[in-house]
Every structure is written in C-alpha cells, then in structure tokens.
Design brief:
By secondary structure, the protein is α+β, with helices and mostly antiparallel strands. The protein has 20 helices and 23 strands. Helix 10 packs antiparallel against helix 20, helix 14 crosses helix 19 and helix 15 packs across helix 17.
Length: 565
C-alpha cells in the first residue's frame, strides 16, 4: 500500500514537473511569440492609400495628378438593417439596390473594415448622403485621392494605367508594401516607376474584441505621397500632334537629336487611363475589345514597312561603299526589269536622269534600286544595323525590334528592300533615331524619357555612339532631304515653312491591304541647328506627302515659335 502511494506521488510530481516545464516554455521561451499573436488578434489596421506622385512634362505641366473622389461604403458591424440602408442609398445615388447588395457581399471581409458599395459618386450625392447619415447606420462616405490625367488620352501609352492586383499577384506584391485593393501600375511609366510613385500607405490601428468588432482607435499613421517624376515630353506639342491625326491611326516620335530626349511619342487611337483609375469597367472593356487596337503603342511596340524613308540608308550604303557618288547619274525610264519581272517607279513615265539630290528630292525608286543592287545586301544590312534597325532602341517601356532580313535574298528582293518594301520592317521610334543620325551628323542616340525622380536626375547609359559614316556622305543626303521640302518638285514640299528650314523624306509603303498604304515622313528642323528629329506614320493612311508631312510642318512651326520666345 505504501509502495503504491509512493509511486502515485512520483507520478503526480512528474506530471507537475512536466506541466511546469510546459508553462515555462510557453510563457518564458515562447512568450514573446504568443504575445505578438495575441496582439495581432487584438489589433487591426484600416489602411489608407497614399496619393501617388505627380508625373509632369519638361515644363512642369501635370500629365498625371490626383483628384478627390467620394466613395460610399458600409461598415458591417455598424449596420442595423442592411436591406433598408441599401435601398435608401440606392435611391439617393440612383443605383440598383440589388447591385449594391452584390457589391457589398463581394467587398465584405471583416466586421470593422468598410465594404465599398459605390467606388465613386458626385460631390452633390456625397453631400446628400452625409446629410442623411442619421438614417443610414453603418454608411460612410470618404474622400480619397484617385489618379487624374488632365490631358485625357494624350500620352496615355507612355503614362500607362493602374488597376488592383489579382489574388495571384497579391502575395508577391505584399513584399513591396502593396495592400489589397490598392491600385498599382500596369503598363507604361505607372508600372515602370510604380515603386517611386506609389508612396507610403498609412492607416488607423484599431482594437477589436473577440468577435472582431472595433472597440477603439489605438493610433494613426498618415500616408506619405509618392515621388514626383519629370519627363522630357512637351505636353503641348504632344497634344498638338495627337489632335492633328484627327482619329487617323498612326504614330509620331519627336526627339532632340543631340540628347535623345523624347519630346513627343504619340500613338493614335488612344485610351483614357482615368477609366482604369476609376474602375469604369464598361469603358475598359470597350478599349480592350476595340478593333482599332487603342491599347497598342504604335510608336514603339508596332512595326511597319518603311517604304521610301529607307532610301536614306540605301544612299548611305552606296556612298560609303563607293558604289555611287553624289554626282552619279542613274536613268529612270519608269521601271526596272529584273528577269521576267518589272518593278515600277511611282512615276511610271520615268524621272529621267537622276543624281542623288534629285533622287532623294523626288523619291525615285529606280535610282535606289540600282544603287542598292550595286551595294549588295551585305552592305545594306550592315548600314541598317548601324542605324539601329532590327534591334531595340534601348527604350525603357514595351518595344518591338522590327525586322531586318538575315537570309540570302534574290536580286529582285534586294531591289525591293532597297526602297523599303519586302522583308523589312521598322518601328516609328527606330525611324526617329535614324532621322536623328542625319540631324546630328552621324551619331546614334539612346531615347531618354525621364528627367528626374523626386528631383534627382535618373542614371543614364552612355547616350551617343559615333556611326563612322563620312561627313561627305551625311552632308550629301542632308542636301537631298532639304530639297525634298524646299523645292517645288520635292515630295515633302507640304512641310515647307517660311519661318523655319526643314529637311525631310517621305515614304509610301505598300501593305497587305489592297490599295491601302502607310504614309511616312522622317526629317528634322531647323536645318542649320536641329532641335527636333521626327518620324511620323499614318497607318493605312495614304501617301507620306499628305497627313504625315502636314504634321511635320506643324511640329517645326511649333519649334520655331518656342525658340522665338
């Protein structure tokens, strides 16, 4: 009996010892961990989004700013009769009670967190709801900062748009401070510089009870606005160019030829980035389903056959390989026969004898097919690649690289690519970089879009590379480009201006659509001290001597007006 009592005593002592060890482990060793968990269960954060930083042009004009929008939400723990409350809100805001109920169920998460039922109402509606707060238990109307784009669709492809992260993306984005339902950059600069523009979110820390209901507010951390970003873009010139397209699909790129600073990058048709910021789902769906492809940046992320603008590089290949000189004369009878095929000049009656200056001025197909064949595909390809074709231009956003043929070409195919037809394509951005090389007398430049972030200059790569073309070659081609605008017989005469000397080259590229062509203009101004080099394309828009040349005239007139101030 005594032995049993002793054994029982030892069992009890052992159990107490184990219990003591367990309590010591939980309270001393792991106490901090469990205290933190308890604190997390007791405290919650009601997030407050940070206003995004501004995006401004080279003169400080806002391209992306912030506006105050009014949001209507319901706090689940405070609402008494949900159906009655939603019916009254629906009547005031002219919405469907059923739609508000569906949105409430979709947005509801925790009892103390507001569930948004209307993401945006007018100021007048917000005031009406506030006046009836005593009848609308649980309804809160908050004023929040939302993205605003003062120029509407202007430069939308550069700026990009915002949207909420998906459920799949959120775990990764949380590492970078992104919270649920917080809008992040999706494309363009809004995405590229999202980390700087987004700022630091704040919010209220609230204490909740065991049912998750708010007991009291413990503290508040204000949000901090994101960094401002200054671009090289000239907003007024960008707006002018997009307006001049008048709905005609196309693109334009205008660069400063010495620095590579982008003054204009226009793509038409465009979209309204503000529709994404305000979750206008109907508008967003229209943009993505539009057969005109407004979401595509035609200036950098689409390729086109270059047509006659490529004749400038054919001239470089001929002069640098000594296959021709500026004085070499080629007879144009109106076409060139190779084997059993005749490739016609655009002037089927023929241009007669053509020197380089006259051939550029009048865009003679026969001249450039002849000197291109003499140069050979190897020399042509080398010059194309030197000028940046067939590779990306170093653009920080989405960019197509175009296409330069690498296979062996027939004699007829060489003749065609010499005039920009056949197996070759370029982007307007590449074409503008090419135009810059003639404007700055032989330098390839890297396009630059961002000047400063938070007032600090952005680190850049080496932006200029010498091409190695002789000064004589470049000068001979520049003379032909100036004549194309200044001479009454020139194909680009519509670009001429009494205020400023302009050099250019038009192009009309055949397409897969019978009877429809892409119209091109590349050039620079003023001739003696170029401040702008450009490439303009009208997609399926006819001749380069029409709309593209008219736009080039307006760009150079703007440059002249700005320089005179």
């Amino acid at each position: 009996m005594i032995d049993r009592l002793v054994r029982l005593q030892w069992v009890v002592l052992l159990a107490l010892a184990l219990l003591g060890l367990r309590l010591t482990y939980l309270q001393v060793i792991r106490g901090g961990h469990y205290r933190a968990l308890a604190e997390q269960n007791r405290l919650r954060v009601i997030p407050e989004a940070a206003p995004r930083g501004l995006i401004v042009d080279r003169r400080g004009q806002a391209l992306a700013s912030n506006q105050t929008v009014f949001r209507v939400a319901v706090v689940p723990q405070e609402v008494e009769n949900l159906e009655a409350v939603l019916a009254q809100v629906a009547q005031t805001a002219q919405r469907s009670p059923q739609a508000l109920k569906r949105e409430y169920e979709r947005q509801r998460s925790r009892p103390f967190l507001p569930a948004t039922i209307i993401p945006r109402v007018t100021k007048e509606t917000a005031i009406q709801l506030e006046e009836r707060r005593w009848q609308l238990s649980g309804v809160v109307v908050t004023a929040e900062a939302a993205r605003r784009y003062p120029y509407g669709p202007v430069a939308a492809h550069l700026l990009g748009y915002l949207s909420e992260p998906t459920a799949e993306e959120l775990p990764l984005l949380k590492r970078y401070g992104v919270r649920p339902k917080e809008r992040v950059g999706r494309t363009g600069l809004e995405q590229l510089l999202d980390h700087a523009l987004r700022g630091r979110p704040g919010g209220e820390v609230v204490e909740v009870d065991h049912q998750g209901k708010q007991v009291r507010i413990v503290g508040h951390r204000p949000s901090a606005i994101g960094a401002d970003v200054a671009l090289t873009i000239d907003a007024q010139l960008q707006s002018l160019v997009e307006t001049l397209f008048a709905g005609q699909p196309g693109a334009a790129v205008v660069l400063q030829p010495d620095t590579g600073e982008v003054l204009v990058m226009a793509s038409v048709p465009s979209f309204l980035p503000e529709s994404f910021a305000l979750s206008d789902n109907e508008a967003i769906e229209r943009f993505f389903n539009d057969t005109g492809r407004p979401m595509v940046n035609r200036a950098a992320d689409a390729e086109f056959q270059p047509g006659s603008i490529l004749k400038l590089l054919t001239a470089v290949a001929a002069l640098e390989s000594r296959s021709a000189t500026p004085q070499t004369v080629v007879q144009c009878p109106g076409g060139l026969t190779i084997g059993d095929r005749t490739i016609h000049c655009w002037n089927r009656d023929g241009h007669g004898p053509m020197s380089l200056r006259e051939a550029i001025m009048q865009s003679c197909n026969v001249y450039f097919m002849q000197v291109g064949r003499r140069s050979g595909i190897g020399r042509l390809r080398s010059v194309w690649e030197q000028a940046g074709l067939g590779r990306r231009a170093g653009w920080p956003l989405e960019e197509d690289k175009g296409h330069v043929p690498q296979r062996r070409l027939t004699e007829g195919e060489v003749a065609l690519v010499s005039i920009g037809q056949g197996e070759i394509s370029v982007t307007p951005l590449q074409a503008a970089v090419m135009a810059s090389a003639f404007a700055n007398r032989g330098w390839i430049i890297d396009p630059v879009l961002v000047q400063t972030v938070a007032g600090r200059p952005l680190a850049r790569r080496s932006g200029r590379r010498r091409l190695g073309w002789s000064p004589q070659t470049i000068e001979a081609i520049r003379l032909g480009m100036e004549a194309a605008v200044a001479d009454p017989a020139g194909t680009a005469q519509r670009a001429a201006s009494p205020r400023i000397r302009i050099a250019g080259k038009t192009g009309t590229a055949q397409t897969h659509v019978p009877g429809r062509t892409h119209g091109w203009f590349v050039g620079f101004c003023p001739v003696d001290r170029p401040r702008a080099a450009m490439a303009i394309v009208a997609e399926l828009g006819g001749s380069g001597g029409d709309l593209p040349t008219h736009i080039a005239h307006s760009v150079c007139e703007y440059i002249a007006a700005v320089e005179s101030l």
